[in-house]
Amino acid sequence: MKRCPTCRRSYADDTLVYCLDDGSTLIATPDLQKTLRVTPPAVDHAAPLYEQRSRKWPIFVMVALLLVGLLAGGVGILILGYSRMTASSQVANDQPRGDQKPQSWSSASPSPSPSPTPRTAQAIVGTWRTSVLENGQNTEITVTFLPTGNTRYVFKQRGGTTTDTATWEYSDSMLFERFHSGASGKGAIRWIDDNHFEITIIDNGVPAYNGLKRQYHRIS
Description:
This protein is of the alpha+beta class.
């Protein structure tokens, strides 16, 4: 594009040198119609995505921590509520009701009869057993009362097994024994039922045993 400086006429023909109207020398002017084309810089599409992710991950972490905290709190509340319910139920079960009496015997020990029926000597015939803690040792005692009036004892302890023999008599809930060593024994028997009795040692030659109680159960 050229333009005449005198008459301001513009010519699109770049080969002209002089103005066709007044003969003035034409001057070149920039063509405003042409658009300067500039190659735009390459756009890195990955960078904005990475930046967006880098901005969002703290939010994700905070949301995740909040959810974990809420979940842990809910579980803790459930466990605490269950524990309190269990404790309350246990206390309620342990307390005796109005129509119940506190038990002084364990479930393994039968309750004694309030009015035990007197037994004859025949009731004690058989083999009986008890487990006791005496003199600091756990001892299992098995005694057999024979119809002939003889008695056999078996004592089992950690150190081994010992035996003893005696003769016996029973009368008015009292048991009298004489051991092969010549020592005599005397005990009061309280019948719990036909298969359980409690004997209180009155005298067996050893003062430390006086008043000691043993509960026997029948094994044959």
